[in-house]
Amino acid sequence: TTNRGNCNETTNISPRCRSGIAVGTARPGRRQTILRLLGHLHDVPSAVANGESKGIYVSRLISETGKVSTPELAAETRSPSYLAVHPSGRFLYAVNEFGADDSETATGYMTAFSIDPKTGKLKELNRSSTKGVMPCHLNLDKTGSMVAVANWSSGSTVSIPVRKDGTLGEVASF
């Protein structure tokens, strides 16, 4: 099961579901590791972030002990403010709030990643413009073939197709 930022899903190990997501399924009586991916600076402990986030972090929950590892960098990316996992569990999507130049007026973008299921490390697949300023939320449809993105500052939305290989297409509607 994946938690796509919705606190009502079955695998919720994050008290802040806005930008932290979990990948894995809890199975009683079995030792397993559930990955927790964190995307926003306030979700990453200050011991790791030291005041500045470098991107998306991963930590591991060991189901047998309940211990959570210290977050480590999964992928460098600018200002990832919301994360969502593809229904297949193989891909992660992030909206990049401040755009390529880290300003609050630059056009934002969305980034697609593949997820290494063993380590939680991410490999960037591609990016797509959100054609608006400060993207703040995204939602994949149940099939994983389309994603909707909300741009906070410009008050606009876009839909972007998701290809079978997890990469993002060009904006379909604005």
Describe the structure.
With 174 residues, the protein is mainly beta. Helices cover 2% and strands 43% of the residues. The protein has one helix and eleven strands, in the order E-E-H-E-E-E-E-E-E-E-E-E. The strands form three sheets. A four-stranded antiparallel β-sheet has the order 1-2-3-4, with no helix packed on it. The chain has a four-stranded antiparallel β-sheet with strand order 5-6-7-8, with no helix packed on it. Strand 10 and strand 11 form a beta hairpin. The longest helix has 4 residues. It is globular and about 45 Å long.
Order of helices and strands: EEHEEEEEEEEE
Strand content bin: 35-45%
Radius of gyration: 15 Å
The biggest beta sheet is recorded as:
4 strands, antiparallel
Measured between the Cα atoms of the first and last residue, the distance is 31 Å
* Share of helical residues: under 10%
Walk across the major sheet and give the strand order.
1-2-3-4
What is the overall number of helices?
1
Please give the number of β-strands: 11
The pLDDT mean sits at: 77
Low-confidence segments, given as residue ranges, are 1-19
Q: Write down the oligomeric state.
A: single chain
Q: Would you tell me the structural class of the helices and strands?
A: mainly beta
Give the overall shape: globular
